[in-house]
Amino acid sequence: MPLEILMPKLGLTMEEGLLVEWQKAEGDTVSAGEVLFVLETEKVTYDVEAAEDGVLGRILVPAGQTVAVGSVVGWLLKEGESAEDLPEAAEISAPPPPEEAPPAEPPAQVQSTAPTSGRVRATPLAKKLAREMGLDLTLVTGSGSAGRVLAADVRAAAQTRPSLAPVGEERLVPHSGMRRAIARNMMHSKLETAQTYMSLTADAGAIVSHRQALLEHVEQTHGARLTITDLFMKVTGAAIAAHPVINTRWSENGVTFLPEVHMGMAMALDEGLIVPVIKSINRKTLGQVAAERVALIERCRAGKFLPDDISGSTFTLSAMGMFGIESFTANINASEAAILAVGAIIEKPVAISGQIVIRPVVNLTLTYDHRIIDGAEAGKFMQTLKGLVEEPVKLLALGVAYG
Prior knowledge:
Blueprint: E1 3-6, E2 16-22, E3 29-30, E4 35-40, E5 45-49, E6 54-59, E7 66-68, E8 72-77, H1 124-133, H2 151-160, H3 177-192, E9 195-203, H4 205-222, H5 228-242, E10 248-251, E11 254-257, E12 263-265, E13 267-269, E14 272-274, E15 277-278, H6 286-301, E16 315-319, E17 338-342, E18 346-352, E19 355-369, H7 375-390
Parallel strand pairs: 12-16, 16-17
Antiparallel strand pairs: 1-8, 2-4, 2-7, 3-6, 4-5, 6-8, 9-19, 10-11, 12-15, 13-14, 17-19, 18-19
Helix pairs in contact: 1-2, 4-6, 5-7
């Protein structure tokens, strides 16, 4: 019997998906593992692969339509089967996609780069960037496997192409699903929480030395390079465990205290900000945290992350040290009670026992929801955090996983 091709459920909260593009046409031979179609949710663009070898017998849902999770979007014919074996319902053709308005005439003496009808192997992110930039993917040389066009190829092509419009002319880039989700969450955060800020400076000498001492061990045992961010996430998780009010959620019925610290790490992609999550960080060793961070970042950059990879955080850490930003404030991630902004570690003159010395210091800024967390409680948390940053060996005394 022909195999149903379903709109998959990629996470607990996913209810529907936009079928962005079919990678195969009716009648095409398909091998197991080949991409059948690309779907998009508010936060994820995902390649849906064939479960078995066969032939794409019928497309029921055309590109551009949103359907519920579990909906049949097409049929895969297995060996020896033909179109006559398709269920009767499959004979009812899906409604055609809405007609698109004809493209506007390109400006005089400017070459049009509207996409051609040729099929191109490209990653979902590369296709999205090409649409936003007005690039024809058939003119882009792919550097991926089997010549697949990658996002980096699109960016490189965009830098070398001739200008598409006179300097200064307005250009409208339609919102992606991810950008709309970010905008909605940021507005919700600002409008629905009583955001208040608290900042301090900590000596980062010990945490830098601590990382250096553990670097080789973590690399040998977990195959990942331990970073300062890993250590900051770990000490922050330990400080949260000592001050449970930080790990809470507000509702009209009361404040929910969450038993596990799921640490979100703010990360920028070309399409916008996402927050990959290291679940139960206090139960994980530094090596496990480093290895999980690497795996999450690789999936996110490759566009292979799933909704569960970026959902469920109870607290978020945002680090901007890689840009040399000394201090900043961050918006609370929707549904959480607080977020920590970690600046760059900078060598500065400081007074110690009446003497001016040069020390590496870091600025830490807490944004917290004053509906839940009082200033005194936020201050106690920051005091504990500062102590752990300046003496990370104290992690051993708090009973959290460490090695």
